[in-house]
Amino acid sequence: MSQRGLREAFISNLNGTNLPEVALGSFLSPVCLINRGLILILYHQAKGTLPLPLPLISHLLLDFSVIILPLIFSCTILSSILYEVIISLILVSACVIYYIYRTNSHPSTRHPKTTVSTFLQSHVQFNQVPFVTVFRVFVNVKTAISILAVDFSVFPRRYAKTETYGTGVMDFGVGAYVFANALVCPEARRKNISGSKVNHITKQLLSVWPLVVLGMGRLVSVKMTDYQEHVTEYGVHWNFFFTLAIVRVVASMLLAVLPASQSWLISLLIIGLYQFTLETSGLKEFIIHNNDREKDFLHANKEGIFSVVGYVAIYMAGVQVGLYVMQPRSQVKEWLKTLLNLLFGSFVLYSALYACQTLVEPVSRRLSNLPFFLWSVAQSLLFMFCLGVADMVLLFSKRTSGCHSVPSSWSLHKKQSDSVSDKKTGEMERLCLVQAVSRNQLLFFLLANVMTGLTNSVMDTLNCSNSFSVCILLLYMFMNCLVIYVLHFCGITVKFW
Asked: What is the four-CA torsion angle of 67, 73, 75, 76, rounded to 10 degrees?
């Protein structure tokens, strides 16, 4: 078998992992985020100042070591003990938080009930997008790691995309990416449509041209370089950039004529009708078993074309969640209620998923069926809940320690503007890798794709040792992060559309 054939076989015919293992991964990123904040707080307490010495270098190295490195290890050499790793990190975080609390609390106000009650009554600045940005960033980062890691043998095959049915970590990544884009779309942010609906739809058609260009670029480069392809993923000519573009246009057309506040109902109708069609017609049989790729464009790209329906449903669900979480709230207890509602929504959807997998069929990213829709949204809500809790823990630690410049989604509300504090906070945000990726997310995704292709073209990824593979992944992610970090530090946003 040729080298290309070996690589294609390496990522084909996989069955994924179980739902609890994918859900377990939702806890790692939030804990890493907390640990980064706690390290900064401890340094501030010890030295009385932030940022760190040699800030441009030290903060990049800190963020990469505490946030990116554990994510790489968790899907490679530590994947077999992920549960133990997460529990250990949580225990360390809990001990540090307790230390900060005992060190900074006055003996007369050290009663836990009093402290928690006072914290819940606190007011926060709500002009920032809460924890949604962090969700989108981590989805992007995990995607960037996975698209190269999957080509190495150190990456567990159960995490890779499944062939037809199953729940791989990368399967969730695709649904989460669509969901993340919907959270911050104009409709979710309640932006008024200017002009006629026809003009709005035309504007949305024009706005996706970068995705179409990127899709065409990937198609041409793959065909010209004889790069390995997993045809049953999207088809012969289709790729994820085309899916993102079509989903955005279709969703914009729907939201131009239907109220965004009913996105959840539209979402359920779309996925319900699609699943009904799969069950009552020959569509499922056509997508899975018809291998006549040379007949026409539809046969060649059936997975990519028909899966758009499921992704549109996921997108519409994301719009509804975006509308909910972006509502202005001023008190910590209001945000806590919001987080608990997200957790409850995840529980309900996971219950529905269990019923669907029992009575209908398993999760299938290839079909983008009803169970895949339920799983993608349920897992996204769980991940958002975990990230929101992490930010709340950071807010509590910041309030207790008096170190308010540590980057997080929320800041305590200030009655008067403090120019020195605002300047310090702005400086810390400028040195934050999470903010850097958030600033140029599409560029980060594109850069990761380009570097993945380059890496595969210059080395035999299948025969690399585990230690060498991890080193390559670390170097790859560091170069991605370095480029994005420098652009952010210089205040450059790469957006030409």
From this structure: 160
Q: Which of 230, 110, 125 is nearest to 174 (CA)?
A: 230
Whether 390 contacts 133, CB under 8 Å? no
17: β partners: 167
Query: Greatest CA span in the chain, whole angstroms?
Result: 79
Tell me how far apart the alpha carbons of residues 408 and 198 are, in angstroms, rounded to a whole number. Answer: 39
Q: ∠326-86-147 over CA atoms, to 5°? A: 70
Angle at the Cα of 134 from the Cα atoms of 133 and 135, rounded to 5 degrees:
90
What is the token pair recorded at 377?
């949204």
Asked if residues 78 and 20 have their Cβ atoms less than 8 Å apart, the reply is: no
Q: How confident is the model at residue 110 (pLDDT cuts 50, 70, 90)?
A: low
Hey, what are 97's tokens? 């938080």
CB atoms within 10 A of CB 224: 8
In whole angstroms, what is the distance from residue 38 CA to residue 94 CA?
10
The runs of H, that is alpha helices, within 360-405 are 370-401
Per-residue DSSP letter, 191: P
Give the SS3 label for residue 329.
Answer: coil
pLDDT of 495 reads 72
Whether the Cβ atoms of residue 378 and residue 357 lie closer than 8 Å to each other: no
Q: What is the pLDDT of residues 158-200, one digit of tens each?
A: 999 999 999 999 999 999 999 999 999 888 888 776 667 777 7
Among 149-158, 253-262, 378-387, the minimum mean pLDDT is found in 253-262
Beta bridge partners of 16: 167
On the CB side of 88, CA atoms within 13 Å amount to 7
For residue 198, give both structure tokens: 């026809």
Number of H helices, E strands in the chain: 23, 0
The arithmetic mean of pLDDT across residues 339-366, rounded, is 96
Q: What is the pLDDT of residue 156?
A: 94
Q: How far apart are the first and last CA of the chain?
A: 43
* Cα dist from 91 to 72, 81, 398, whole Å: 21, 16, 19
Q: What does the buried/exposed string (b/e) look like for 16-52 if buried means 16 or more CB atoms within 10 Å of the residue's CB?
A: bbebebbbebbbbbbbbbbbbbbbbbbbbeeeeebbb
Q: Which two tokens stand for residue 78?
A: 């530590």
Six token digits for residue 330: 């001023």
Predicted confidence (pLDDT) at residue 248 exceeds the cutoff of 60: yes
CB 316 within 8 A of CB 182: yes
pLDDT digits (tens, 9 = 90+) for 49-99: 889 999 999 999 999 999 999 999 999 999 999 999 999 999 999 999 999
Average pLDDT over residues 95-121: 76
